[in-house]
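Minutes, structural biology subgroup

Action item carried over from last meeting: produce the structure token record for Cupin 2 conserved barrel domain protein (Mesorhizobium plurifarium). EB confirmed the sequence was re-checked against the source entry. Recorded below for completeness.
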Amino acid sequence: MKQHVNPIEPLTFRFVDDGLVPNHSRWPMLVYPGALPLPDDVDPAAVFEDIFAANGWGDSWRNGIYGFVHYHSRIHEVLGIARGAAEVRFGGDNGKVLEVKAGDVAVLPAGTGHQRLSGSADLLVVGAYPPFGTYDLCRSPEQHAEALRTIPTVGRPDKDPLYGGDGPLLKAWSEG
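Output recorded by EB:
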């Protein structure tokens, strides 16, 4: 199934280390609002899974977003909102609260804090990861020092999870 992805210039958000959540020191979180039109006659989660996989982002899952502050220090993550809507705080307690809704995509560089504050009853999120890195779940102060060492070692993906090799992620996450 070939799905049309709207050409969206992403919103970028940078967050500072708050002592619990390191965030990423160089790369911003990207949000593509309304990037993926989701027709009523298809499984919206399958649409995200197919697009992410076609661009090399795999190990996908279907669920929601944890209701506690957490981050991943050894891998980047993409979140596609397949159904419903949620208020999510990105960047830790001093970060930014955004409403995400069906068709939106958020790409979180390693270290980016996220927490669902509220969500609709039908909320369904598809998450996926680039082909390298190791999934971990960090949420305690004791993990912070190690995370500061591992986050910079997680390399830039070769492809944007939505737009592939020509996607905005490659410029936003330049190695410089």
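Discussion: The chain is about 15% helix and 25% strand.
Next step: EB to file the record with the rest of the batch.
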